[in-house]
């Protein structure tokens, strides 16, 4: 089961997905809301935190969640505050009941990862792509439009038209033809 524990939060935050199963994982922690109480409200036994990237809106609650549940955080770059363990490009990561492949997808931020499970037909896209072909900002530090386009292309080549769900860093998740939204984002990101 995948639940966005940031749903309904009015403050500036990313989505934060609690994925329950064999290995209960929080994908991003969000910020500016009480993530700890929202996890406890679900009676979840958290095993780990996995980060798509370390922008403040995605990791604002990181230390509070780590402290409350005694868990560690995995991300691309252990030089980033709060990241305890590195996830390499193409590494397999257990999230919930499925194995996901990590895809290093810079362009929005250098340490950006997406997570794709072929067996679950699910993509955690972070801030790479969003609903309706939107894509991550490249005007922030470490942003690079050309690298973002390459990263979107990489994800587009990995997933296919059978992709069932795309969980994104901001806005609603996409459960109707998410592959189309990835393709749209690739085209839109190329426009200057």
TrEMBL record:
InterPro entries, alphabetically?
MBL_Glyoxalase_II, Metallo-B-lactamas, RibonucZ/Hydroxyglut_hydro
Q: What class of enzyme is it?
A: hydrolase
The cross-references to SMART domains, in alphabetical order and at most eight, read: Lactamase_B
**Enzyme Commission code(s) on record:** 3.-.-.-
The UniProt GO MF terms for this protein read: hydrolase activity; metal ion binding
According to the entry, every stretch annotated as the Metallo-beta-lactamase domain falls at 13-170
Required cofactors, per record? Zn(2+)
UniProt KW keywords: Hydrolase, Metal-binding, Zinc
Protein name as catalogued: MBL fold metallo-hydrolase
Q: Which organism is it from?
A: Halorussus caseinilyticus
């Amino acid at each position: 089961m995948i639940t966005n524990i940031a749903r309904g939060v009015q403050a500036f935050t990313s989505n934060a997905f609690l994925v329950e199963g064999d290995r209960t994982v929080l994908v991003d922690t969000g910020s500016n809301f009480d993530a700890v109480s929202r996890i406890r409200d679900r009676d979840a036994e958290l095993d780990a935190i996995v980060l798509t990237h370390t922008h403040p809106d995605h990791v604002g609650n990181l230390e509070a969640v780590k402290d409350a549940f005694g868990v560690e955080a995995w991300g691309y770059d252990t030089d980033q505050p709060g990241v305890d363990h590195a996830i390499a490009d193409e590494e397999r990561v257990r999230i919930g009941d499925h194995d996901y492949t990590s895809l290093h997808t810079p362009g929005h931020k250098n340490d950006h990862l997406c997570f794709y499970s072929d067996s679950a037909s699910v993509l955690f896209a972070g801030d790479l792509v969003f609903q309706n072909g939107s894509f991550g900002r490249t005007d922030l530090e470490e942003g690079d439009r050309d690298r973002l386009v390459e990263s979107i292309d990489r994800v587009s080549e990995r997933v296919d038209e059978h992709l069932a769900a795309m969980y994104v860093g901001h806005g609603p998740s996409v459960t109707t033809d998410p592959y189309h939204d990835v393709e749209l984002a690739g085209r839109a990101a190329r426009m200057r």
